[in-house]
Amino acid sequence: MSTATGSPADRVTALELQVLAHRGWPAVEQWEGRELPGWTLRAAGGFTRRANSALPIGGLGPGGTPRAAAPPATAADFRAAADALRAWYAERGLPAYVQVCGGTEDARLDAVLAELGWVAETPTELHTGPLAPLTGSGPGPGSGPVSGSGSGEEPAGVLLTRSVDAGWAALYHRAGTLDATSLAVLTGGPSVWFATVPGADGRPEAIGRCVVDGAWAGFSGIEVRPDRRRRGLARRVMAALADRARSEGAVHGWLQVEADNAPALRMYAGLGFRRHHGYHYRRAVGTG
Q1: Would you give the end-to-end CA distance of the chain in angstroms?
Q2: Distance between CA atoms of 134 and 104, rounded to whole angstroms?
Q3: Domain assignments of the chain as residue spans, ordered by start
Q4: For the residues 243-247, what does the mean pLDDT come to?
């Protein structure tokens, strides 16, 4: 995978970030078999493409470390494995997806999948940025009154918990109710925190999720109630989560955002996050 240049967060490779994202949004079922050498297949009842797609990063060993193996490099190689991949997902009633990272290494894989008729979907960007400016303890976007103290205490009015309650689930954009499989994905990861800004009417005004993994913190599920937008609530949620992540040793942040989500892209840019690389999904024709 390619390596970006610039800040320490930019110098991390796309492969390393893929592994972080994989650990931070874990599927409830993972499979690596001889029929598909060099792949990790993931399933979670259809809850998000991230947790229900094949990841061609050489397979994952103990602790999520990628093994030194490559996915099939030619159309002939992939055709030999495609039936097993399709069958694995079909057995679970799921469409067959492959997550394809941008860059020269995956360009060949992407071309093979396109040749086989797999449809490209959901172009997404992975952004990285420093945590210190978010918490007000360093220069840059996000520092100031809205960002918290940098001392590990969340900004006023933001509650942090280890679990998802009914209010958080109701505001989460993917589902008003979350089943056990979805909750297993959301609560999975090395050190997961959920943020809520309680509203006067008893409903959350804003929510967010963060998973801390060593020097990195991954943000997701940042949502604000439509009638409470443009009040800085998303920034407060990010600041609270960043504070907690820093208290556990994290220095850098990462997040994933769909490429056509202009409001989110502007907000994250204002918080100091910059595009590291892009990825998309290829779906097997006739599935999904």
Answers
A1: 28
A2: 33
A3: 8-126+279-283, 132-250
A4: 97
3-state secondary structure of 221: strand
More confident residue, 231 or 136: 231
CATH number assigned to the domain covering 132-250 = 3.40.630.30
The answer to whether the Cα torsion of 102, 255, 22, 83 is positive or negative is negative
State both tokens at 249. 């040793």
**% pLDDT > 70, the chain:** 78
- Positive or negative CA dihedral for 253, 255, 260, 262? negative
The residue-averaged pLDDT of 8-21 equals 85
Please report how the helices 104-115 and 75-90 are oriented relative to each other, as an axis angle in degrees rounded to 10: 70
43: left (phi over 0), alpha (psi -120 to 50) or beta: beta
- What sign for the dihedral angle of Cα 21, 23, 26, 30? positive
What is the C-alpha to C-alpha distance for residues 41 and 30, in angstroms, rounded to an integer?
5
Pairwise CA distance, residues 137 & 128, whole Å:
18
Q: Which amino acid appears at position 243 of this protein? A: D
Beta strand residue intervals within the chain, DSSP E:
29-31, 40-43, 54-55, 97-101, 119-130, 159-161, 192-198, 204-213, 216-224, 252-258, 274-283
> How much is the pTM?
0.86
Tokens representing 130 are: 């420093």
Burial class of 29 by CB neighbour count within 10 A (0 to 12, 13 to 18, 19+): middle
The reported pLDDT for the residue numbered 62 is 53
Gap between the Cα atoms of 142 and 46, Å rounded: 35
Tell me the two tokens of residue 70: 């490559």
